[in-house]
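Q: Convert this sequence to structure tokens.
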Amino acid sequence: MTEFWETAFTENQLMWGDKPTASALFVRDHFARTGVKEVLIPGIGYGRNAKVFLEHGMSVTGIEISGTAIALARSQLGLQIPVYHGSVLDMPYDNHLYDGIFCYGLIYLLDAEGRAKLIRDCYRQLSPGGQMIFTVISKKAPMYGQGVRLGDDWYERMPGLKMFFYDAASVQREFGAYGLVELAEIDEPTSGGGFFPFINVVCEKG
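A:
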């Protein structure tokens, strides 16, 4: 997977533009309402979703497997925040507890074991009362079922790109033990002018 994303970032530079996702705006507002001050973003990419939190006075720490993406965050978006260079599967990178964790998209690229580990590791790094929000792709997405079927709701859409698609049942199954409080469906705009259906999964540490 590392090679896939290094190639993608190198060839496309800011491949998704510099604007934050609709989910990042949703999470920013959610975190602002609940008083979040410190945000961890596993899979921060080149940082397009980080700026909305910084602009609201929150600190941001990232984790990113692509060195190219980290370099773009510095050179193109001017982000000088701490970013750990490595895989989210190697979490934790520090012993700090964060009151907000936001993971956009990344988790559905992992296999079942990897998804379970990421959820577990993020929950461990939440402070009591903290919130973690994962943006996952819905089974309602038009590409659901395309490519080589690897398992239930899991497909290799192209070489090196494997995706797991969620519905309410799989969200409950994977996040239910980690303070699941809300599912919020959201349409994310695409570069072609359309929308893809995603789900924001909100969990709170009691």
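Residues 19 and 188 are 12 Å apart (CA to CA).
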